[in-house]
Write a structure and sequence with these properties.
Order of helices and strands: EHEHEHEHEHEEEEEEHEEEH
CATH superfamily: Glutaconate Coenzyme A-transferase
CATH class: Alpha Beta
Strand order of the largest sheet: 1-14-12-9-2-3-4-5
Strand content: 25-35%
Radius of gyration: 18 Å
Structural class: alpha/beta
Number of domains: 1
Helix content: 10-25%
CATH architecture: 3-Layer(aba) Sandwich
């Protein structure tokens, strides 16, 4: 058996180098791997490119990673959401680069990257500033833009339960980008509430097979972003 369990979040992200590209799961609070993100802050990697749905809230989790000055570029769909103040300030002052991607296109770019598809065509963003510099083609009388598949060095993901092989199940909408990010990253790191023994997960409900997961960390009582933000918490 290939045991993919790591003792701590710190151990699981210890080898993330400066300049790495990192996919971070989450749809707002749902599925945000806060413990892994905080461990990455403690680890110290800099000049990161982060690929995520948004840029975090308050000054914890992803927002804390940005505030610490560790991220040089963000690829996302929602750079500003409720309680998002860190990224707007960084962007306005020219301290961070933004690649804005429509949400459906972002999901498909990640999925394509994981499936080995280098590029695809979509009608999203045709006729908008996001179309600038992109190849376009006409299919059946309609214009489409070419978008490149996305891959990353690492993915940080939050699941509900896993086994030592790295098979993962999720909790409802916390599933969001996790499965496709695991496929699109060279090293997928998953934090879960519970690690069960091999054979205890019903294969019919496994969402992310262990073949796509490199490391699993148990976090029995994960923090909740909304509670931290409401309490005015910051990290570190």
């Amino acid at each position: 058996m290939i045991d993919k369990r790591y003792q701590s979040a710190a151990d699981a992200v210890a080898d993330v180098p400066d300049g790495a590209s990192v996919m971070i799961g989450g749809f707002g609070e749902a599925g945000s791997p806060i413990e892994l993100i905080h461990a990455l802050i403690d680890q110290g990697a800099r000049d990161l490119t982060v690929i995520s749905n948004n840029t975090g809230s308050g000054e914890v989790g992803l927002a804390a990673l940005l505030k610490a000055g560790r991220v040089s570029k963000v690829v996302c769909s929602f750079p500003r959401t409720a309680n998002s103040t860190v990224f707007p300030d960084l962007y306005r002052s020219g301290r961070i680069e933004l690649e804005l991607v429509p949400q459906g296109t972002l999901a498909e770019r990640i999925r394509a990257g994981g499936a080995g598809i280098p590029a695809f065509f979509t009608p999203a963003a045709v006729g908008t500033p996001l179309a600038e510099g992109k190849e376009s083609r006409e299919f059946d009388g309609k214009e489409y833009l070419m978008e490149r598949g996305l891959r990353a060095d690492f993915a940080l993901i939050k699941g509900r339960r896993a086994d030592p092989y790295g098979n993962v199940v999720y909790s409802k909408t916390a599933r969001n980008f996790g499965p496709i990010m695991a496929m699109a990253a060279r090293v997928a790191v998953v934090q879960v509430n519970e690690i069960v023994e091999a054979g205890m997960l019903d294969p019919e409900v496994v969402v992310t097979p262990g073949i796509f997961v490199s490391r699993v960390v148990g976090v029995a009582s994960p923090m909740h972003e909304s509670e931290l933000v409401a309490a005015g918490a910051t990290y570190p």
